[in-house]
């Protein structure tokens, strides 16, 4: 059985107080609803990690993730945060290769491959993001385009290593735009990515890798997207900033 994961990506939002309030509400609702089969991952900005982790406490099923990590191991890299530091704070997941990092910070497949290795070497599960632009979708080359992102950044990993990776398919044209991929479009791409993983690592390994959908997922469209056989959860931006909306998505699973 693949893990079901609902991950919230706070991006560069939330002051200390806002983050504390949001986390408490999510943790309390998660406990009250007695949710057991969905792992929730909160990915706040770096300074929130320790206090968020404290609020989560021993709540099993809720974990903390980071939104990025350095490709370097340690040392004189002012402003960077290593996977080792994250791990020492109890972080379990790290988003790598979000389209905003690719676009605004010029992170390419090669650099992302190094970040993935750093994460894995320090016991973190990378949530590896991939997805195509609107231009590529309209040209009809989205499938080879996204498959290549996996090949180029992940296919040097061993089967054991890739088994710790979570994939997030996030069509760029759907991120923060209110425009979601249809459930069928998501399923089609997720199935294609799983076949691609299977061709390299075998069916059993591929069948155990969670593939999340991201891009304007909200309480209204989550149930349909999450009902698809190859959609194993969501990576949620905007709708993860409101506890009720985020919980509705978790519940609709
Ligand atoms: P969105 O963001 O839900 O606001 O579209 C998703 C993401 O960027 O991970």
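^ structure tokens above, recovered residues below v
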């Amino acid at each position: 059985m693949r893990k079901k994961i609902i991950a919230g990506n706070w991006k560069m939002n939330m002051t200390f107080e806002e983050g504390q309030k949001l986390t408490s509400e999510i943790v309390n609702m998660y406990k009250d609803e007695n949710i057991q089969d969905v792992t929730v991952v909160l990915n706040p900005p770096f300074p929130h990690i320790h206090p968020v982790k404290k609020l989560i406490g021993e709540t099993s099923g809720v974990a903390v993730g980071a939104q990025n990590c350095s490709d370097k191991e340690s040392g004189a890299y002012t402003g960077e945060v290593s996977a080792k530091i994250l791990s020492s704070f109890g972080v379990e997941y790290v988003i790598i290769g979000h389209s905003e990092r690719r676009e605004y910070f010029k992170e390419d497949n090669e650099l992302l491959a190094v970040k993935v290795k750093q994460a894995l070497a320090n016991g973190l599960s990378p949530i590896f993001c991939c997805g195509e632009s609107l231009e590529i979708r309209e040209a009809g080359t989205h499938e080879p385009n996204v498959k290549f992102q996996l090949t180029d950044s992940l296919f040097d990993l061993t089967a054991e290593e890739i088994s710790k990776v979570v994939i997030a398919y996030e069509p760029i044209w759907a991120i923060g735009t209110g425009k979601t991929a249809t459930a069928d479009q998501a399923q089609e791409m997720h199935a294609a990515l799983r076949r691609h993983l299977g061709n390299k690592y075998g069916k059993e390994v591929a069948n155990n890798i969670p593939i999340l959908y991201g891009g304007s997922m909200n309480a209204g469209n989550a149930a349909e997207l999450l009902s698809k056989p190859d959609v194993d959860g969501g990576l949620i931006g905007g709708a993860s900033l409101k506890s009720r909306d985020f919980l509705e998505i978790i519940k609709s699973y």
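The chain is about 45% helix and 15% strand.
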